[in-house]
């Protein structure tokens, strides 16, 4: 059946929940393109015949042409949805992607990601009164400026932005500015205590 | 120096500063810490919390943090020792000490600049006057050196007389000072709970919440469960808290704008003092509560028979009392408290009910204050896994907040195990006559290798055990003199290092003022015999001792006290 492969690509993305990036299905895309090529060649041949008087072929030609257009739409949708997901990754993970994610991207997608990164960085540098502003921090306004954290490992001394140094020792609890802690929480050194 | 206005002199001072909280490991301190944390979180006071379990940890924690902080808040530790001498702080460091340990060290009381005591000035503090303890040193030395070469003989004689007079006066003053200090420091006892002090601070700032009130209640209940305060003091403090409870929870009775079932409500209860009975079966709770098991003498066959009689008298079928309390027949539970109290009176247990508070939230969750105390303290002294003390501290701290119900339930299970172990140990100690009268006090040593002995290497558990044992012993012995004696109990602490942990508790009489003289006595006995002891715990009456020094230490203690 025409179009079966193309819809399979869409389904594949649909099945992966939001924020996930499945591996780039190169094989599927190639098969769809081959199908399109075959359709196009058959159409070419039939058009030539139709010109020479076989008017009964016209409906078949129209049908093939619709299939062609549909396949194109599916592929574009597939690629576009992936781009949206990749863009979301930049906001979530920061500029360096984990290897597992990078592995799932095609070379073109990689290039697009780099360019996006560049333009975002240029923009962020240009705003904020000459100092630049990191837009990826605190996308939603935080409930409080400070959070309570617990130290899971002996980390040693840690300097916060007003110049004071605190000692992060296992099982000590601290009440610190939120944005200073986020990095350490991601690294698994601190744990956010919810009370 | 005592602070009178906590808000101005403490809270507003630390408001825009970074503060280090040093918290001792007991439930009262945990509750006080919770309240203070909640206050600091509303006002964005940046703090660091470090748990400390003894003097050594306090010292290392201080050394590690002294460069980064100026303000130190000590919760339930530090008042009964000269902090400046022990910690040698820089001059700009300020300590706020909120502690229940009494007597407060006299230097801490009269230091105006560095030590601020967040302590309720009860009438029983009896601090000696400044002039009796301290005296300017200048007048003794200088004058005598100014000898005039051309002085007359008479003048010289006068001077000699004057000087000897002064010296005599000084000696008298010294002796008097020793006497006053001895009287002051002789007895160790506990004052108003830290959690209540912190709640009072929250209240005068109008920042008190129902949660904080609950922590204050748990803190007070801890003092009662650990038998640290007199019954009188407990009832007075409960009264003070009850006013706050009715202020915060008046919306319950109101039908029209009653709160959702999920909101937390605190209610005053005149409930049975059976340990954990709402989460256990009535039978097991009766068997493992100190008061009932001692009064019924449950370690003997006769006692077991008496227990059966007791149930028969109440008209409760054995099948019902042996199943979980919340699955008991509702019809039986209706007048249960009155029924039990009435029968208990017949069996000579007159104080089975006690004023306390309970907390409800949701349909399922109801806890008595004592349940939470047992759960938190057994989490804190959990010996099942080889985790460090601070891990256990964190777990106990978590179990106090309502969002961590699983930890609380875990604690309740541990507490049940602990109570059973205490009961078994008490029974075996009494049946095998391990409690020996040494003259001035009773003595009991838990042998290595007895079951559950590891559990009792921690201070709170050991104190609880010795209090249960003393009470049971009083009921079991016929010797009238023994009933008035205090008790010393020892258990192995670390077998590899050959150390024992030893605790002394005051006699348990009706009129007992819970004042404990073992702290000084231990110190003196160790001094006299050169025993290798370690005063690491914040309670002076708990010490660590080398196994080999035990007997000579005990001999010294006996001769000292008799």
UniProtKB/TrEMBL annotation, chain A:
List the source organism: Eublepharis macularius
- Keyword entries, A-Z: Chromosome, DNA replication, Nucleus
Q: Does the keyword Nucleus apply?
A: yes
What does the annotation say about its assembly with partners? Answer: Component of the GINS complex.
Domain of life assignment: Eukaryota
**Entry's localization field:** Chromosome; Nucleus
Q: What does this protein do?
A: Required for correct functioning of the GINS complex, a complex that plays an essential role in the initiation of DNA replication, and progression of DNA replication forks. GINS complex is a core component of CDC45-MCM-GINS (CMG) helicase, the molecular machine that unwinds template DNA during replication, and around which the replisome is built.
- State the family it belongs to: Belongs to the GINS1/PSF1 family.
Q: Which GO terms fall under biological process for this protein?
A: DNA strand elongation involved in mitotic DNA replication
Pfam families for the chain: PSF1_C, Sld5
Q: Which PANTHER family match?
A: DNA REPLICATION COMPLEX GINS PROTEIN PSF1, PARTNER OF SLD5
The record lists the membrane-crossing segments as none
Query: Could you identify this protein by its name?
Result: DNA replication complex GINS protein PSF1
Q: Which residues form the GINS subunit domain?
A: 48-127
* Cellular component GO terms held in the UniProt record: GINS complex
* Residue span(s) of domain DNA replication complex GINS protein PSF1 C-terminal: 143-194
Q: Does the keyword Nucleus apply?
A: yes
From TrEMBL, chain B:
Tell me which InterPro entries the record gives: CDC45
Q: Name one GO biological process term.
A: cell division
Q: Which GO terms describe its molecular function?
A: chromatin binding; DNA replication origin binding; single-stranded DNA binding
Name its cellular compartments: Nucleus
Keyword Cell division in record: yes
Question: Keyword set for this entry?
Answer: Cell cycle, Cell division, DNA replication, Nucleus
Keyword Transcription regulation included in the entry's annotation: no
User: In which residue ranges is the amino acid composition biased (Acidic residues)?
Assistant: 136-148
Q: Which domain of life is it from?
A: Eukaryota
- Give positions of region: Disordered: 136-158
Q: Which residues form the signal peptide?
A: none
Q: Which GO terms describe its cellular component?
A: DNA replication preinitiation complex
Q: Where is the composition biased (Basic and acidic residues)?
A: 149-158
As for family, the record states: Belongs to the CDC45 family.
Protein's UniProt name: Cell division control protein 45 homolog
């Amino acid at each position: 059946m025409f179009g079966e492969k193309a819809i399979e690509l869409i389904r594949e993305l649909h099945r992966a929940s939001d924020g996930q990036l499945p591996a780039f299905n190169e094989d599927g895309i190639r098969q769809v393109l081959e199908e399109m090529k075959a359709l196009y060649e058959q159409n070419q041949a039939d058009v030539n015949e139709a010109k020479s008087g076989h008017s009964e072929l016209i409906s078949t030609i129209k049908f093939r042409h619709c299939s062609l257009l549909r396949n194109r739409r599916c592929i574009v949708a597939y690629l576009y949805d992936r781009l949206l997901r990749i863009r979301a990754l930049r906001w979530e993970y920061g500029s360096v992607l984990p290897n597992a994610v990078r592995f799932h991207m095609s070379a073109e997608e990689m290039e697009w990601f780099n360019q996006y990164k560049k333009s975002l960085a240029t923009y962020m540098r240009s705003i904020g009164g000459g100092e630049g502003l990191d837009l990826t921090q605190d996308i939603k306004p935080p409930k409080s400026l400070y959070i309570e954290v617990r130290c899971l490992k002996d980390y040693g001394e840690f300097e916060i932005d007003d110049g004071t140094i605190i000692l992060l020792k296992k099982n000590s609890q601290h009440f610190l500015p939120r944005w200073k802690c986020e990095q350490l929480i991601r690294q698994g050194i601190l744990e956010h205590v919810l009370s | 120096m005592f602070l009178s206005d906590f808000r101005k002199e403490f809270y507003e001072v630390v408001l825009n500063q970074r503060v280090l909280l040093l918290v001792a490991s007991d439930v009262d301190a945990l509750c006080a810490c919770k309240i203070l944390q909640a206050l600091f979180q509303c006002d964005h006071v940046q703090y660091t919390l470090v748990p400390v379990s003894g003097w050594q940890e306090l010292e290392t924690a201080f050394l590690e943090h002294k460069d980064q902080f100026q303000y130190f808040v000590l919760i339930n530790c530090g008042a009964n020792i000269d902090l400046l001498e022990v910690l040698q702080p820089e001059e700009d460091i300020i300590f706020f000490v909120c502690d229940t340990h009494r007597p407060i060290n006299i230097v801490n009381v009269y230091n105006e600049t560095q030590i601020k005591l967040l302590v309720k000035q009860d009438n029983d503090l009896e601090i000696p006057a400044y002039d009796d303890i301290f005296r300017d040193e200048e007048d003794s030395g200088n004058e005598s050196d100014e000898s005039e070469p051309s002085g007359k003989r008479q003048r010289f004689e006068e001077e000699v007389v004057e000087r000897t007079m002064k010296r005599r006066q000084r000696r008298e003053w010294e002796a008097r000072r020793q006497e006053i200090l001895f009287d002051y420091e002789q007895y160790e006892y506990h004052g108003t709970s830290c959690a209540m002090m912190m709640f009072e601070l929250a209240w005068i700032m109008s920042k008190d919440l129902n949660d904080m009130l609950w922590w204050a209640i748990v803190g007070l209940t801890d003092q009662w469960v650990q038998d640290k305060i007199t019954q009188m003091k407990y009832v007075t403090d409960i009264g003070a808290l009850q006013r706050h409870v009715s202020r915060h929870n008046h919306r319950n009775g109101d039908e029209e704008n009653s709160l959702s079932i999920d909101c937390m409500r605190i209610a005053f209860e005149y409930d049975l003092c059976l340990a954990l009975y709402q989460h256990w079966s009535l039978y097991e709770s009766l068997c493992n509560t100190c008061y009932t098991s001692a009064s019924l003498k449950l370690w003997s066959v006769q006692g077991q028979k008496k227990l059966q009689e007791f149930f028969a008298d109440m008209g409760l079928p054995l099948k019902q009392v042996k199943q979980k309390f919340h699955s008991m027949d509702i019809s039986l539970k209706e007048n249960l408290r009155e029924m039990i109290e009435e029968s208990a009176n017949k069996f000579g247990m007159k104080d089975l009910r006690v004023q306390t508070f309970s907390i409800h939230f949701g349909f399922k969750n109801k806890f008595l204050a004592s349940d939470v105390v047992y759960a938190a303290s057994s989490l804190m002294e959990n010996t099942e896994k080889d985790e460090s003390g601070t891990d256990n501290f964190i777990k106990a701290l978590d179990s106090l907040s309502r969002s961590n119900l699983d930890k609380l339930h875990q604690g309740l299970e541990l507490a049940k195990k602990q109570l059973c172990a205490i009961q078994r140990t008490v029974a075996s100690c009494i049946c095998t006559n391990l409690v020996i009268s040494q003259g001035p006090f009773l003595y009991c040593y838990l042998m290595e290798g007895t079951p559950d002995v590891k559990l009792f290497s921690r201070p709170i558990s050991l104190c609880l055990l010795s209090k249960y044992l003393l009470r049971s012993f009083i009921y079991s012995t016929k010797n009238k003199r023994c009933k008035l004696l205090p008790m010393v109990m020892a258990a192995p602490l670390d077998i590899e290092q050959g150390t024992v942990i030893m605790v002394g508790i005051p006699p348990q009489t009706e009129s007992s003022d819970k004042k404990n003289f073992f702290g000084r006595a231990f110190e003196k006995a160790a001094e006299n015999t050169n025993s290798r002891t370690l005063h690491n715990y914040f309670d002076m009456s708990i010490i660590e001792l080398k196994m080999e020094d035990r007997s000579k230490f005990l001999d010294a203690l006996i001769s000292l006290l008799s």
